[in-house]
From TrEMBL:
It comes from Sinorhizobium glycinis. Residues 15-98 form a coiled coil. It comes from the Bacteria. This is Flagellar export protein FliJ. The lineage of its organism: Bacteria, Pseudomonadati, Pseudomonadota, Alphaproteobacteria, Hyphomicrobiales. Keywords: Cell projection, Cilium, Coiled coil, Flagellum.
């Protein structure tokens, strides 16, 4: 009796934890995308200011090069976080299924106890 209740609470906790992790990944991705857009606008501004938009040009602004590299690194991080997000979504679905089973078993047991 108590074991089923404990199992249900454990599964419920796991579901909430996976949802929290998923939300955190999504927030990180959106923050990285915002940072990338900001860097890209700064790159455009620097290119207009210097009049040079070719990154291979010898006089290309150093700040624009660094910002471009940082934006590229953020894009790589976003792709890696997307992979982690996909894995977290699968894990969440599994834990939700386990929680549903545990809740159904607890419901069945409590119904049997009431009938007895």
């Amino acid at each position: 009796m108590k074991a089923r209740e404990s199992l249900t609470r454990l599964k419920e906790f796991q579901v909430r934890e996976k949802q929290r992790q998923l939300t955190q990944l999504q927030m990180m991705m959106s923050e990285f995308e915002r940072m990338t857009k900001e860097l890209e606008s700064q790159i455009v501004f620097e290119e207009k200011k210097s009049g040079i938009s070719d990154p291979s040009h010898f006089a290309y602004p150093t700040f624009a090069k660094a910002a471009r590299q940082r934006a590229d690194n953020l894009q790589v991080s976003i792709r890696e976080l997307k992979v982690q997000q996909d894995a977290a979504e699968l894990a969440l679905a599994e834990v939700q299924a386990e929680y549903a089973k545990a809740a159904a078993l607890e419901e069945r047991d409590s119904s049997a106890r009431l009938r007895a």
